[in-house]
Specification:
alpha+beta, globular
Length: about 325
């Protein structure tokens, strides 16, 4: 779709190496290809808010202390713990039943501390998507760096799968057929925005939130992989304000990724891909409105943005409105 649209240019295996900034505005990006890209507006979808960080925006990392946001589940003192990472793998049915042998140098014993649980979701063809919860703690990932962490996670996948086949014989009918080419990273750095979403928003739910600029709703549990707290379910969906996409001090930049303005606890819930897609849709819509009205991103009227999102069938209320229900599941 992007290739067919002549207004879209795609650069693969490319990032920025320098940001041109004047006050609260980005004026250009200097890419690793040597190109200079200038635009009226920029959306940071880098995952950890790398563009915002390069602009000098205030960033958050690790778990904030309880006193900072008055979050009941936060620790008494701040720390550097971040959500764990997972390397997804796929298994397919084989002709014979056996335990796959381990390659030389990969131990059958867990060397990284504790064997995790696994979520196995079946594909229509009978294969399973296997999600270790997690493959590596977030702090270890941060220490190792991406390339070394990926290699170590691949070794753990094979060792863990060997354990699964030994403990649950029904899995001896399957073989690893694919390992994801990238790690599933749940948390790194987060931007301080005009509003910081916290556990209090998640616990309040839509019924008790009074934000006029909610542009997405989510409902996943407080889900910190690699910690003793486990998952904590929520009573109802909650809303994410547009201000969470507005980095403090910037006028023409939005952040639409897991690095948006969330506390660490809030990020453990709203980091899911389905929610990030909603943030991307809201950011793109806000940019279009700002261009149309010749205003800065912070001046986009919340009621216009929400009305435009509703026209795109974005769900902003709960319980679900009958018209949207009929659109999603027509009778």
């Amino acid at each position: 779709m992007c290739i067919r649209d002549r207004r879209v240019t795609i650069r693969t295996e490319t990032t920025f190496k320098e940001v041109g900034r004047q006050g609260g505005r980005v004026v250009a990006l200097h890419l690793t290809t040597g190109e200079r890209v200038a635009a009226r507006f920029y959306v940071d979808a880098t995952g950890g808010g790398a563009l915002c960080k390069a602009c000098g925006c205030e960033m958050m990392y690790g778990q904030e202390c309880r006193a900072r946001f008055n979050e009941p589940s936060a620790p008494a003192a701040p720390n550097n713990q971040i959500n764990g990472v997972t390397l997804i793998f796929r298994i397919s049915r084989a002709r014979e039943s056996r335990i796959e042998p381990l390659a030389e140098g990969i131990s059958a014993r867990c060397w990284w501390g504790k064997l995790p649980a696994m979520s196995a979701v079946q594909y229509p063809n009978g294969d399973y998507n296997c999600n270790m919860l997690p493959t590596m703690k977030g702090e270890e990932f941060a220490q190792l760096g991406y390339e070394d962490a990926y290699g170590e996670c691949r070794r753990r996948v094979y060792s863990f799968w060997h354990h699964v086949q030994k403990q649950w014989p029904e899995f001896q009918q399957y073989r690893i057929s694919w390992i994801a080419p990238a790690l599933g990273v749940r948390e790194t750095t987060r931007v301080v925005g005009e509003y910081i979403l916290t556990e209090n928003d998640l616990r309040a739910g839509l019924a008790r939130q009074d934000h006029p600029d909610i542009i997405a709703i989510a409902d996943h549990s407080l889900d910190r992989h690699g910690t003793a707290t486990g998952a904590k379910e929520l009573a109802e969906p909650y809303g994410i304000p547009y201000r969470c996409l507005l980095p403090k001090g910037m006028e023409n930049v939005l952040v639409a990724c897991r690095g948006a303005s969330f506390s660490s606890i809030a990020a453990s819930s709203c980091r899911l891909s389905r929610t990030m897609m909603q943030l991307g849709q809201a950011a793109g819509t806000a940019v279009a409105l700002a261009a149309e009205l010749s205003i800065d991103l912070s001046d986009v009227p919340p009621e216009k943005l929400r009305a435009e999102l509703r026209s795109q069938h974005v769900e902003l209320e709960w319980p679900r409105e009958p018209g949207l229900r009929e659109y999603i599941v027509p009778e």
